[in-house]
Description:
seven-stranded mixed beta barrel
Amino acid sequence: MKRQLILEDGTVFIGEGFGSTKEMMGEVVFNTGMTGYQEVLSDPSYCDQIVTMTYPLIGNYGINRDDFESITPAVKGFIVKETCDFPSNFRSEYSLHTFLEEKGIPGLSGIDTRKLTRKIRTVGAMKGKICGMDENPEEVAAALRGTDFATDQVSRVSTMKPYPSPGRGFKVVVVDFGMKHGILRELTERHCDVIVVPYNTTAEEILRLNPDGIMLTNGPGDPKDVPEAQEMIKGVLGKIPLFGICLGHQLFALTCGADTEKMKFGHRGANHPVQNVETKQVMITSQNHGYAVREESVENTDLEITHIALNDDSVEGLKHTKYRAFTVQFHPEASPGPEDANSLFEQFITMMEEEKKAGNLTCQNA
């Protein structure tokens, strides 16, 4: 069935529909990963976005039960050059088409994804709509230009109630802004006693749990739309060791007096080089963000830049100069992508150990 993608500037891409036949609007972005489409589709940070995969063939290894990053996908649409209808992989349980159909996510194949990606890189991320051929492009484009997306993405993808992932090590409170399961996996593999809490949990509620460390997770949208998180971070900073990833990194920066800005087209993929400012070591990282910390805004704060992106010199890591707290913009848990930065979880464990040795923690089993 022929379907179309209409962008807010009136550009039309016509292809073959697959997955759900629903009509969906979203911010059209691109991901440069060669693999990992299942993790991309289930990453809550893609809430309200239509994702374009730059790799030409998607779906060839199917969908399996083990690689999901969340239970309920939040992505609005999926665009590929070519989709594979008959996947071949020993773990495959069903096709990409079947998955999208079951989850109500429209797909579009057979379009020039290279042309679409070049357009986004030139103009920036744009609003778009996947719809049937009977829709008038001019009317849809006008409607898109007059549409403002909701600012409640974090509240929609965060857990509604606290829940534990028991372990016998350090007690870590994970503040869920749209957490990928990979973060939880890395903490539990290190025997952490994890409690996942909603995004709007207060500092007082977290401190009552008597944690040894706090993890601020990834999540969708503009960090300035989550002011309650800044109040929480302000209340725990300096009292409990803290590690933030992606949106957690941006919220930490805002709390400490720095500023964030929307990027032209963001970083999304599994091949982004990042350099450690101190050691000069370069890591290939997995990334998914449309906002970044403004470098000049870090000046005159108690923050220090620890990592930079080699492609555009944007800020990729921060640490507090007075307290045990550090954050990164990229994803050390990968999923999908390289595990070059996985040692940052060990750094978090070490930070909690140092705090315990200083006599400030109560964990007895770490």
